[in-house]
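Recall that a protein's primary structure is simply its ordered list of amino acids. Everything else, from secondary elements to tertiary packing, is in principle encoded there. The following example makes that idea concrete.
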Amino acid sequence: MDCIYVPKDKLLTFKLSEDIDDNQTDKLRRKIDNEITRFLPRKTIFDFSNVTFMDSAGIGMLLGRYKLIKMLGGELAITNANKQVEKIFELSRNIKNNSNSGG
């Protein structure tokens, strides 16, 4: 994973380069949290260009980072997600929407 910070824009980009699964999430979480608390960015981008696989542990890790970033007053964006990663996001949105509607 590469981390790029642009101070002028308070923009932090994480270029993820590995599969995001249960074996990787703790390591990624620590690195990402360190950079977020170090720079306190206004906007954080997760670039999925080089990610070919992500499981539910990855979704959990991203949701936790989303909460942290929001708590610090920032925004989170995701870019360049492949079809498999997009499918995981779609499933998680659908599950969340269904649970909110009582079903």
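The longest helix spans residues 83-100. Confidence is low (pLDDT under 50) at residues 95-103.
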